[in-house]
Amino acid sequence: MCDYAYVRTTPANPPAIPDKCGFDDGKVARIKAIFDEALADKRTVLLSHETSEIFTLIGVSAPKTKLATSADQAGSFAEELGYPVVMKIVSPQILHKSDCGGVVLGVKSKDEAASAFNTIMENAKTKGPAGADLKGVEIQQMVNFSGMTKNTEMIVGMNRDPNFGPMLMVGQGGVYANYLKDVAFELSCCYSEEDAMRQLKKTKIFSILEGVRGQPRSDIKGLVEILIKLSQLVTRFPNIKELDMNPLLVFSESEGIAAVDVKIMIADPNAPAAAPPAHH
């Protein structure tokens, strides 16, 4: 009844929401090009350096990531991103990278990065799936949150419903997200700050964000901004099928937010259409 009353009192023609992503012709063309490059490579899941570039374009804080295809390039990219960095194998066939020795943490020099590149590639060849397509090694900034006064793991995502369109999700993140199921959903259409706050308040984790037992208030304003940018991204690009940020680290108001792990799945326009559901 509360939801029904809210819908009844909401204006039928809400005011236009300002473009938070700063979309211009150049940004739109580049994001479309990233999707086209992935599909040309017969992939519907974007690689980390591709999602990193998209989030940089729309102004969401995420660790910068580069794809290295040689040891020399790995050293150069590590220097460019700043130490320490984490290095991971990039292959559509290798989902659990650490299981085959495909991850090296805390790389602190150019020589170390070059050596780690060779080690990761060799491990992937000998311990990974036979015939795996090894794209290279991603070099990523390590997020240092040891000195933060507060760190709350959130999950933010989107799933495109065939009837209702993009559905935004937000809630408690981390490794137990699928077990705790402390999440709330909302339609992406005409999504505003009021919608974001209303959605957040449906979760139990919201009380932690507000601050309990002397803890500082989390950067709720920054989290709301990310939710709005996400809604505008998936509305602008209907070929984004799924999006998942877990964990999204929300620090205190003065310390900001970092999207540590982002996954984007796009639709393949050439894939056969799914059969319509049977009616009984």
Summarize the structure.
The chain is α+β, with helices and mostly antiparallel strands.
Helix content: 25-40%
Number of strands: 10
Mean pLDDT: 90
Tell me the fraction of residues in β-strands, as a range.
Answer: 15-25%
Low-confidence stretches: none
List the helices and strands and how they pair.
Layout: H1 2-9, H2 25-40, H3 48-57, E1 65-68, H4 71-81, E2 85-90, E3 103-107, H5 110-127, E4 136-141, E5 152-161, E6 165-172, H6 177-180, E7 183-187, H7 193-200, H8 206-210, H9 220-236, E8 240-250, E9 257-259, E10 262-266
Antiparallel strand pairs: 1-4, 2-3, 2-4, 5-6, 5-8, 6-7, 8-9, 8-10
Helix pairs in contact: 4-5
Characterization of the model:
- With 280 residues, this protein is an alpha+beta fold.
- Helix content is 35%, strand content 22%.
- It contains nine helices and ten strands.
- It has helices at 2-9, 25-40, 48-57, 71-81, 110-127, 177-180, 193-200, 206-210, 220-236, and strands spanning 65-68, 85-90, 103-107, 136-141, 152-161, 165-172, 183-187, 240-250, 257-259, 262-266.
- Strands 5, 6, 7, 8, 9 and 10 form a six-stranded antiparallel β-sheet that branches.
- A hairpin with a 3-residue loop joins β5 (152-161) and β6.
- α4 (71-81) packs across α5.
- The protein is globular.
- The model has no long low-confidence stretch (mean pLDDT 90).
